[in-house]
Amino acid sequence: MNFFYIILFTGLSLNSCSQQKEEETKTTPLPSVVLKDIFLADPTIFYNEGIYYLYGTTTGNSSLNGEGFQVYTSSNLKKWKGPVGVQGGLALKKGDSFGSKGFWAPQILKYNSLFYMIYTANENIAIATSDSPLGPFKNASKEPLAASVKQIDPFVFIDDDGKKYLYHVRLTNGNRIFVAELNDNLLSIKQETLTECISAKLKWENTENVEWPVAEGPTVLKKEGLYYLIYSANDFRNPDYAVGYATSKSPMGPWEKSKTSPIISRNLIGENGTGHGDLFLDKDNQLQYVFHTHYNATNEAPRKTAIIEINFVEKENELQLEAKKESFRFLNKN
Q1: Ramachandran category for residue 100: left, alpha or beta (phi over 0 → left; psi -120 to 50 → alpha)
Q2: 198-237 burial string, b = 16+ CB within 10 Å, else e?
Q3: Among residues 224, 218, 301, 248, which one has the least CA distance to residue 4?
Q4: Which residue among 2, 105, 188, 320 sits deepest, i.e. has the most Cβ atoms within 10 Å of its Cβ?
Q5: What average pLDDT does the segment 115-142 reach?
Q6: Taking 60 as the threshold, does the pLDDT of residue 21 lie above it?
């Protein structure tokens, strides 16, 4: 199995959403009382040789905002050190790769002895490489993946047969999740394979009934021949931002949304804005989902990083994904 990986206004436009997200990373002041919480949105955790590496979109008033991607490390998922990237805490630094702003939603994988960072910048997708998970990640061409529209939130899945797929969000009449087969160099897609997977159409996916519905943050895994696409829906500023999933017999779809979605929401864990994360296996082979929440019940920013266990549960003659409420916790610095 491969694991490569507040305020919402009715009729909210895409540009206002993107603009507000960028403003948050630059100017949002931290509350007067800040504990040791880690403030990374759209997080991902990559495990390599006994160490967990945590990356994400920087939130809050950090001097590293808009400069690239921080990385934290831990040996037990409880005590975190960082940021410890080789470039002043950054694993990828602006100027070394594509992008001048909007560094969002990275994913890390190891392929052919190199570490790859697939990420969003300038509302495009780019890929950088490094010899170490700590960086420096660089992209010699400083070019994004070619696309006719803006695209964000990349996730690379490598199937058992070696085929590689890029799941991502295209900004076209809403945030919609697409998939395309990647070429073996991981630097371009096979354009003829580009296929839409999911858009936000269910009631829980658009609780404010906005004109620009949002489905984003895809992660994919495979279990007993079935593909599971985990995603988030609603605008990230909406308290109802939540996580659901869909299944398919093929990595290209068609996808059937789960009747039990959302599986992570404020109704489950009592925190607003729960979503946009990544799945990974911990040292004990337990499936975990790292994600972000709002700062508190009244303030969306800065978003906090959290973790919860995910299990496969046999129900109605099928394997369903279920989050373990008791395992939910925030990630903290040492």
Answers
A1: alpha
A2: bbbeeeebbbeebebbbbbbbbbbeeeeebbbbbbbbbbb
A3: 218
A4: 105
A5: 96
A6: no
The rounded distance, in Å, linking the Cα atoms of 69 and 42 is 11
**Per-residue confidence (pLDDT) for residue 30, from 0 to 100:** 53
Candidates 193, 186, 196; CA nearest to 158 is 186
Could you tell me which of 49, 13, 23, 4 has the C-alpha nearest to residue 251? 4
Order of strands across the sheet that contains 68-74: 40-48, 51-58, 68-74, 90-93
Query: Is the distance from CB of 119 to CB of 105 less than 8 angstroms?
Result: yes
Among 138, 106, 90, which Cα is nearest to 219's?
A: 106
Closest CA relative to residue 222, chosen from 181, 150, 152, 165: 165
SS3 205: helix
The two three-digit tokens of residue 6, written as one number:
């507040």
Q: Is the pLDDT of residue 61 over 80?
A: no
Paired tokens of 312: 């496969």
Of 98, 105, 94, 69, give the one whose Cα is nearest residue 84.
69
Q: How many CB atoms lie within 10 A of CB 62?
A: 18
- Confirm if 92 and 128 have CB atoms less than 8 A apart: yes
Q: What is the mean pLDDT of the chain?
A: 91
Write the single-letter amino acid at 100. Answer: S
Cα angle value 156/159/163 (rounded, 5°): 80
At 327, which helix (H) or strand (E)?
A: strand 318-330
For residue 261, give every residue at least 6 positions away whose Cβ sits within 8 Å of its Cβ, in sequence order, or none. Answer: 202, 204, 242, 243, 244, 245
- What is the 8-class DSSP label of residue 167? E
Give the C-alpha separation, 126 to 145, whole Å. Answer: 6
The predicted structure's pLDDT at residue 29: 55
Confidence (pLDDT) at 8: 33
